[in-house]
Amino acid sequence: MADEAQGGGVHADMAAGMYDRSQGHTSALSEGADISNGSSPMSSKSIAPKVTVGEARIDVAAETEALSGEGAAGALVTFIGYCRDEEGRLSALELEHYPGMAEREIRKIAEEAAERWPLIAVRAAHRHGKIAPGEEIVFVACSSRHRGAAFEAASYIMDFMKTKAPFWKREHLKDGSVGGWVESKATDESAGDKWHRI
Amino acid sequence: MKLSYFAWVRERIGKSDEEVALPAGVETVSDLLDWLRSRGENYEYALQVPEIIRVAIDQEHVDHSERLAGAGEIALFPPMTGG
Predict the structure, then answer these.
(1) How far does the signal peptide extend, from start to end residue (chain B) (predicted)?
(2) What is the mean pLDDT of residues A16-34?
(3) What's the confidence (pLDDT) of residue A197?
(4) In CATH, what number is assigned to the domain containing residue A110?
(5) Is residue B82 part of a domain?
(6) How far apart are CA A31 and CA A21, in angstroms?
(7) How many structural domains compose chain B?
(8) Considering the domain boundaries, does residue A32 fall inside one?
(9) Which residue among A98, A163, A184 sits closest to B6, beta carbon to beta carbon?
């Protein structure tokens, strides 16, 4: 299926860097007892997300290291979306984007996440152009004192990035032909619904 | 007014952008889509299912009921598939 051309949640590198730093913060002690955990809106001042859109490879190791924090963060959740090879059928995915609006929309989504959860840092990077199977397409990272906020915020950003950020994928096939445009998935279209506040 | 097209909307229309002068009576996004469809087979092909076309005015997502007055750049594109 053309609409399966990218590794949504399958390759999530969700736990990177989280376990060691959250020692002593998680468990019953903080769950529920601390309003900064989970999705409780924390208001006051939210941080400025760092957002980039470009053709270059994303240095995931360096980006992750940069967010490891200096003691403030107890959790860092990272997500990497990869280009799949679709059982060897694909030679590349080509991502078209709307320059300017793409970065603006991602920033808007990241800022919403930073307002909604008590995050320490937010990083979002999205590539455009030709991307080979195995390469990263998107990188999202959120750090927070406790893991709940970081997990939820990263998931929120991905859900809205897929349906609001102006990018379009098309397949390039191993046989040299250009395949079709990837169709949007109903599951992606509706993924944002679960974040609506009552 | 500048119109920009992306992905298969761009391919089917056959250009990535153009300057147009809107005729009287074209006041909303919905009116614009109807008017464009009347401009030729390529537009009709690109916009034959207008309800799935996404629209941004000056780089902000808008509904088809949005008014065009004051718009600088209007972009038409398919549902997004990034991430």
Answers:
(1) none
(2) 34
(3) 63
(4) 3.90.1170.40
(5) no
(6) 16
(7) 1
(8) no
(9) A98
* pLDDT averaged over every residue in chain A: 82
Residue A195's contacts (CB-CB under 8 Å, 6 or more residues apart) are: A156, A159, A160
Report CB contact under 8 Å: B77, A81. no
Q: Tell whether A198 is covered by a domain.
A: no
Label residue A33 exposed, middle or buried (CB < 10 Å: 0-12, 13-18, 19+): exposed
How many structural domains does chain A have? 1
Q: What is the CATH number of the domain that holds B34?
A: 3.10.20.30
| Rg, Å, chain A Cα set | 17
What sign for the dihedral angle of Cα A198, B53, A140, A109? negative
Q: What is the ipTM of this complex?
A: 0.96
A57-83 residue pLDDT tens: 999 999 999 998 788 999 999 999 999
CB contact under 8 A, B82 and A168: yes
Residue B83 in any domain: the answer is no
Residues A166 and B9: beta-carbon distance below 8 Å: no
Question: Which residue range(s) make up the domain with A106?
Answer: 16-22+46-182
Answer yes or no: is A60 within a domain. yes
Residue pLDDT, tens place only, A115-147: 999 999 999 999 999 999 999 999 999 999 999
Sequence-ordered list of residues with C-beta below 8 angstroms from that of A197, at least 6 positions apart, any chain? none
CB contact under 8 A, A184 and B81: yes
Per-residue pLDDT of chain B in tens (83 residues, 90 and over written 9): 999 999 999 999 999 999 999 999 999 999 999 999 999 999 999 999 999 999 999 999 999 999 999 999 999 999 999 99
Q: Which of A105, A166, A189 sits opposite B6 (nearest CB)?
A: A166
